[in-house]
Amino acid sequence: MNMQVYLKDGILCVGFNQTSMLFSEVQYSLGHGAMSFSSFPENKFRIMFGTFRSEFLHSMERQETETEFLETIKGYVHGTSEIDPYFNFYMDIYVMFLLCLRVQRPEIPKMLKSFVSEIEGWDIDSVDFSDISESSLWVALLLIEDIRLRTARLKEDFEAITGSDDAGLTPMQRLYLLSEQGRNYLSGEFRTTLRPNHTIKKGEKNLEKIKSTLLENKVDIVEMVEIKTLDDLLRYELYHTLKSNLIIRWCKHCGEFFIVHGRIDMEYCSRVKPGETKPCNIIGATRSYWGSKEGNAVYTEFQKAYKRNHSRQRMGKMSNLQFYEWSEEARKKRGECEAGRLPFNEFKSWLGNKK
């Protein structure tokens, strides 16, 4: 893997130097890639790897060319690549593996070892890659296990950075402690150059053409960093996330980490938790609101009358105007009762609640 990375206006841009089978460049908001990767649902990885494997085996049966197989795969990738930028790297390595498997290239074990972590019980050298069906399944499962390990480590690091222990330490100081404990966040060596963020024709000497390219493509000169591993990209992103004073917080609804934007006291992310239809910042805030009303007798009586009159309005026994005027008056009296200016029994009697 050979990437060129740069930051511009809070956007992380990753170029692949023509080493990717599927992508030329991906872009995403700084911090959001790592947050998304740490919480990415495993079933989506399984579905995509399963789809790639199925298409590959069918392609082999149909004796399609490598180009035809890639065109089919790119159709799936087009709608998936925006879900999570780090998922792109796993899709890319799996497709590269399948293409190597297709012609039984001897460098398959070396390629896999350069990408995945060392995982206990998973011996790449012992796999019979001549068995295309079994080995393609085995590698898909290996990549899923690698994702589990990386995301688990990432969550541990987020907890260390955002936790309440070691009060007084800044997030960057905590990142330094993680590096001292072996995470190597601050010890990575990156080659950095200043260069255009748009390709200038190699060997071009005509200054007028160069000027035209710079103007037409609004080319900036950026600090370009060469990155060779997925772990280094994660380290680079997390370091710059903290350097940019972006706040990492734990969502009180889904339990995943997110970048705070807007209100500094945000407690919920904007993800849609698996099994639900609305984002956490809607569901969580609603549940928090209703939870704060539990045991509140004044609010309970108000809700009882509100539901009764709302039902009457829907059945045509109360006009929209009558319901609106009643609800406005009821809220006013509820406020008076909560403030102690209206006795509870009088409020309950006015609402018409008997029990």
Task: Give the SSE map.
Elements lengths: L2 E6 L2 E5 L9 E5 L2 H7 L3 H20 L4 H13 L6 H18 L5 H8 L16 H31 L8 H13 L7 E6 L10 H10 L4 E7 L2 H14 L4 E3 L6 E3 L20 H13 L4 H18 L5 H19 L5 H8 L4
Antiparallel strand pairs: 1-2, 1-5, 2-3, 4-5, 6-7
Helix pairs in contact: 2-3, 2-4, 2-6, 3-4, 4-5, 4-6, 6-7, 11-12, 11-13
Assembly state here?
Answer: single chain
- Average pLDDT rating: 84
The secondary structure category is: alpha+beta
User: What is the N-to-C succession of helices and strands?
Assistant: EEEHHHHHHHEHEHEEHHHH
Radius of gyration: 28 Å
Q: List the domain count as a whole number.
A: 2
Distance between the termini: 70 Å
Low-confidence stretches: none
Task: Note the main sheet.
Answer: 5 strands, antiparallel
| Number of E-state strands | 7
| Sheet with most strands: strand arrangement | 3-2-1-5-4
Report the sheet-strand fraction.
5-15%
Number of helices: 13
Helical coverage, percent range: 40-55%
User: So what's the overall shape?
Assistant: elongated
Structure description:
This protein has helices spanning 32-38, 42-61, 66-78, 85-102, 108-115, 132-162, 171-183, 207-216, 230-243, 280-292, 297-314, 320-338, 344-351; strands at 3-8, 11-15, 25-29, 191-196, 221-227, 248-250, 257-259. The protein is of the alpha+beta class. It folds into two domains: 1-246, no CATH class; 293-351, no CATH class. The strands form two sheets. Strands 3-2-1-5-4 form a five-stranded antiparallel beta sheet. Strand 1 and strand 2 form a beta hairpin.
